[in-house]
Amino acid sequence: MKRSQDIPVVLLHALPLSSAMWQEQAAALRARGHTVITPDQRGFGTVPLGTAQPSLDIVADDLAVLLDERGIDQVTLVGCSMGGYAAMAFLRRYPHRVRALALFAARAGADSPQAAAERLKFADLMLDDATRDHVVARTTPLLVGATTRARRPDLVDRILTMTKAAAPEAVAWAQRAIAARPDSLPVLRSTDVPAVVVTGEEDELVALEEAMSAADALPRGRLVTVPGAGHLQPLEAPDYVTDLLTTLLDDAATADGKR
User: Fold this and answer.
1) Are 86 and 105 in contact (CB under 8 A)?
2) For residues 99 and 256, is the Cβ–Cβ distance under 8 A?
3) Neighbours of 68 (CB within 10 A)
4) Contact, 201 vs 226, CB < 8 A?
5) At what angle do helices 113-126 and 132-139 cross, to 10 degrees?
6) Collapsing DSSP states into helix, strand and coil, what is residue 50?
């Protein structure tokens, strides 16, 4: 039987953060002996944006190249928010490379025309020097739940620092890529691997019904609601999220052993 430590883990970050958002989970999983990969997506962290047109397929291909360079075939794929959308794009393009799946704060359906238009407007505002700071200050608190805002001002400040550090061009590119993404429910329905869909009890950006839809689509999916957390559950409830990922990895190893 394979050990859970034999399964490399990829943690994909949310918008507009970087791979640093996963530092607690990455450290805990590495301490258990896992290979953990926390890539920065295009334009974030240390990775240049490049000149490609906005597309999550490009982001998925970037990850495939990274795994090839490291000689890794299959992974447990974990994504939060934008990272979840990138994970579903990877799943569409490379389904044979995903051994287990965790989606945090990500809706599986495509954006409605209104939602897509709002993303495109947000992208334009981020590129405007006159509006950028106001937009960042107004939207960043919505990334966490009311409990976190009330009790963890230090975390809110930390997230605000990360959002201010993001390149406006990268944020705009990512929003345009997310706005153009297709419906991922069909690919989830054909994804027969251990899977968990995670939502925050206080998430103000992704509705519980949308998380339920994704979990229901996955043949082996289950829904978990993180109490007292909003959109960024890995930062708001790091130990809770680490335990979820540990359980998923154990489930994936057990499933492999039964093949």
Assistant:
1) no
2) yes
3) 11
4) yes
5) 130
6) coil
> Which of 243-247's residues contact partners 24+ apart within 8 Å by CB, and which partners?
244/102, 244/196, 244/198, 245/9, 245/25, 245/29, 245/76, 245/78, 245/102, 246/4, 246/28, 246/29, 246/32, 247/196
User: Which residues are 104's β-sheet partners?
Assistant: 80, 198
**Alpha carbon 242 to chain centroid distance?**
14
Structural domains present in the chain: 4-257 (3.40.50.1820)
Q: Sorting pLDDT into bands at 50, 70 and 90, what band is 254? A: confident
Q: For 192-216, how does the pLDDT look when each residue is reduced to its tens digit (9 = 90+)?
A: 999 999 999 999 999 999 999 999 9
Residue 40 DSSP code = P
Average pLDDT score over the chain = 95
- The pLDDT score that the predictor gives to residue 1 is 47
Yes or no: say if 194 and 251 are a contact pair by the CB < 8 Å rule. Answer: yes
Average pLDDT over residues 84-109: 98
